[in-house]
Amino acid sequence: MATDGETLPWADLEAPPVPPAAATRSVHRLGLVLGLLAAPAGVLAAFLLSPLLTHEPLDAASRSQLTQGLWAAALCVLLLCALVASLWRSQRLAARTLRQTVNELRRGAWESAVAGLREPRRAAVPSAFGDLATQVEGVLGESERRWRARAELSTDWYWELDQRLRLSSLSADAPIAKPAGRALGDLLGRRHDELGFCQPPAMGWHAFHELLARQEPFRDIEIAVTGLGTLEHGWVALSGRPRLHRDGSFAGYEGVARDITAPKQAFRRLQASEQRYAVMAGLSADWYWQTDAEHRFPPPSNEMLRRFGTLVQRNAGKTRWEAYPEALSPAQWEAHRAELDARQPFRALEFAVQRDDGRTIWLALAGAPRFDERGQFIGYHGVGRDITLRKLTEQMLVQHNRELQLAVTARTRELEQANRDLDAFARQLAHELRTPIGHVQGLAELLRQRLGERLGTGEGELLDLQARAAHEMLHTLEALLELARSSSAAIERQHLDLSALAEEVIAGLPVLERAAPVQWQVQPGLSAHASPPQLRIVLQNLLGNAAKFTRHVPRPLVRLVGERDAEGRLLLTVADNGAGFDAEQSERLFQPFQRLHSEQEFGGTGIGLTIVQRIVQRHGGRIRASGAPGQGASFSFSLGPHALLGADEAEQPTEPGALAPQRGVPSVAG
After folding, report:
1. C-beta of residue 521 within 8 angstroms of C-beta of residue 560
2. What average pLDDT does the segment 470-489 reach?
3. Is residue 346 a contact partner of residue 358, using CB atoms and an 8 Å limit?
4. Which one in 168, 395, 406, 646 has a CA-CA gap of 20 to 30 Å to 231?
5. What pLDDT, on the 0 to 100 scale, is given for residue 8?
6. How far is CA 158 from CA 152, 161, 213, 232, 249, in A?
7. Buried b vs exposed e over 468-492: b needs ≥16 C-beta within 10 Å?
8. How far apart are CA 663 and CA 108, in angstroms?
9. Cα radius of gyration rounded to whole Å, the chain
């Protein structure tokens, strides 16, 4: 049975419940029985009263017959009256029953209407009302089942307004009546604007009430609600239509409402996302574009008009190669069209266009094909970027690089000329100094010869000191010339057997007074692509220093090995177990005239390692030194990317014990 605030959906009924012909047969059967009984009674009465029609005197038998006929006639009249009374009573009972049934159905109490049709007092026509009750119960029961299923499974709820536009009926399960402290009775009898938890719609309460006053139907008017079911805030959508009485007068409104909180929140999130996207698109250097299946531009959006003005308006309905035919060569446009016809994505399509204001801008486009839900090709879409600034920057960089290259070339010529001048000056200076120094040496030797035995001990020592000073000065001049040549001499690379060159250098080293002969270990098979004369100077200095600084070692050992460094370059190492040096002073080794040992202990000019460093650097490599006092020194240098190990590199051992056989260097016992 329908609950309060609910109305049965009479529109679901296919037809009003009408008794069929079989339902009235019992009434007709009763009338037929009474008619059959009345007919013989009438015939018998007519037969018995027939003597009266003959106008003959009545004898006793005739009077008796007359009396019987009168009784038969009276019986017939009584039966006819009973028939009329039965029919009248049945009609009244049927009319009252139908009126009560209609009233019960009108107020939605169809179950009580069916029970009334089946009451014992209406058994005079049991077949008619029993069939009617069964039909009503079947039709309305099925209709109510559908109505209840729809009401329970739907998120909508039913409401009604009276003539004064106040809530008069509301589904008990409406979410606006569910929050704690809010009862259904507190809502009924009030207008929507009198409910403190309802916010006005977008049109406002006044416009909403004017719409209701005009008795117009409405749909999906959104109202914000504080406290909707279990939600703190929500939205409902109202749809309604006017209700009319039977006489056509206005009775109020009826309608449904539904909770639209979830879609409303989703819409607001989408709207916020769209706003963020619009801001990002407006401030970004990129923009979105699309074309149809024929690769033509659609009418421009406001964003495109803002970016490019009327240029994109003129290009609407054109293809890219029709809009900008001069931007690329015909071959480039043909290649681009082939990509589009093959439905392939493309990137970095760059070309220049001219705006209406005369300014040329560079565009870079990337795109991908679009397909509809059936997989049909509908065009291309993608993003574009204004790369004008990048192109201008590239042009500026090219110009600056060109200018820088010219400046570097000019500066290089100046430096080369300065180096040539310095080299020439050094050579000339050395040549000019060599002659007077030779004269000093010669004069000292001439004085020694002329004085002979008259030369005293003190004077002899002075002459010896003068001769040694002149010799050292000549040696320093030669070192300076060698340093100048190391910076200016041309590097002519060729394949070089480093192992053989090291053997030659070792054999040509000067004989020194030492405690024991040097044990040399040279890795065989070392080769490089370098300048042989300059590599000879490098090995002479490094191997000569190793031999010099191992003079006082009881078992001197010098090794020359090669390997690949982390960058794949050839790395050569000359290591010894001699005097060593302080590792913190390693940078001073490659500065001219810098010594880490006293000249009395280990002589030298202090320029050798500087020459080695310059030669290594000119070969594209670098040199580093490591060591510790009394534990020897190690010099490792590379020769740049052109240097390489020998072909038998993988087959050559690198352990000291597996190197070339040891051999001694002649020594003078000290």
Report:
1. yes
2. 62
3. no
4. 168
5. 42
6. 12, 11, 20, 22, 22
7. eebeebbebbebbbbbbbbeebeee
8. 126
9. 62
Torsion of CA 446, 452, 457, 460, to 10 degrees: 10
Residue 83 tokens, joined = 């028939």
What's the N-to-C CA distance of the chain in angstroms?
Answer: 132
> Which parts of 173-319 are beta strand (E)?
218-228, 231-244, 250-259, 286-290
Report whether 73 contacts 39 (CB < 8 A): no
Instruction: Lowest mean pLDDT of 30-34, 505-509, 627-631, name the range.
Output: 30-34
Check if the beta carbon of residue 660 is closer than 8 Å to that of residue 524. yes
Q: Which two tokens stand for residue 193?
A: 């604007």
Where do we find the tokens 């029993």? 130
* Phi, psi angles (nearest 5°) of residue 238: -105, 135
Q: Which two tokens stand for residue 431?
A: 């040549």
On the CB side of 538, CA atoms within 13 Å amount to 28
**pTM score of the predicted model:** 0.36
Q: Answer whether 287's CB lies under 8 Å from 384's CB.
A: yes
CB atoms within 10 A of CB 452: 7
Is the backbone of residue 564 left (phi > 0), alpha (psi -120 to 50) or beta? beta
DSSP string, 80-107: HHHHHHHHHHHHHHHHHHHHHHHHHHHT
Lowest mean pLDDT among 218-232, 256-270, 653-667: 653-667
- Residue entry with tokens 């270990």: 521
Give the SS3 label for residue 279. Answer: helix
Query: What are residue 244's DSSP bridge partners?
Result: 250
At 481 the pLDDT is 64
The DSSP line for 371-414 is E-TTS-EEEEEEEEEE-HHHHHHHHHHHHHHHHHHHHHHHHHHH
